Amino acid sequence: MLNLFLDSADIDEIRDVYSLIRLDGVTTNPSLLAKAKNKYGSPVLNLKVVYNFVTQHGGALHVQPVGTSYEEIISDAYYILDEVGPKTWIKIPVTEPGLAAIGKLSKEGINITAASIFSFTQAMLAYKAGAKCISVYCNRAEENGIDYKTVIKSIKNAVPDVMLLAASFKDIKQVEEASFSGADSLTIKKALLFSALNDSVINKTVRTFKDDWAEAFSSNTIKGE
């Protein structure tokens, strides 16, 4: 079953997308949070509003610490869980200190998303440290000459039970290729997600239906008004 997440920290944007489709949650990172409109006085309060909204709709919120050292990651993680919400998934880039933090926090029963994944080995280290979700960064991988499709396939072949969250997309083609390669979860920014509706073939098809009807009945609706 495919899980779909919105990559955003903007509560207005999140509410808007939730009003249109059913999502499985929201992912964010320090860059997105820094860019989001801060209507609630602080980034943490903004995240709290997002957390309450997402969890009330049965979804999960994935939040990344800002710190990069082991001590900073652990401190940020506890703060996020205390101030944002206890069900928050902690998203940790898989560096050496990140791996150590994943090991400690996962042993405490905290849900961990291993982020910034660019290789099979990196993913296996995170999985063995206790991460329940592995997030492959597709476009960033491609920009650095890494075949993200092969990385996704390798991970899913080795650990089919892990939640593989594909992230970092530049276009719909990458989204589709990630899914075809075995990703069972996708996180996508709003603009890219809905760009799929602006396809010229779709618009041409819809116009043809309407034009055929108008020519036959001199009306733009079935009701005839």
* Average of the residue pLDDT scores: 94
**SSE pattern:** EHEHHEHEHEHEHHEHEHH
Rg value: 20 Å
Low-pLDDT residue intervals, each spanning 5 or more residues? none
DSSP summary, beta strand count: 8
What's the helical proportion of residues?
Answer: 40-55%
Q: If strands are numbered along the chain, what order do they take across the biggest sheet?
A: 1-2-3-4-5-6-7-8
Number of helices: 11
Strand content: 15-25%
Secondary-structure content class: alpha/beta
How is the main sheet built?
Answer: 8 strands, parallel, barrel
Shape: globular
Cα end-to-end separation: 42 Å
Q: Could you explain how this protein is built, in words?
A:
There is one protein chain. Helix 4 (70-83) crosses helix 5 and helix 5 (96-107) packs parallel to helix 6. The longest helix has 18 residues, at 200-217. An eight-stranded parallel beta barrel has the order 1-2-3-4-5-6-7-8, surrounded by six helices. The protein has 225 residues and is α/β, with parallel strands linked by helices. The protein has helices spanning 11-18, 30-35, 43-56, 70-83, 96-107, 120-129, 138-143, 148-158, 172-180, 190-195, 200-217; strands at 3-7, 25-27, 60-63, 89-93, 112-117, 133-137, 163-167, 185-188. It is globular, with a radius of gyration of 20 Å. Helix 4 links the parallel strand 3 (60-63) and strand 4 (89-93). It is built from eleven helices and eight strands. 51% of the residues lie in helices and 16% in strands.
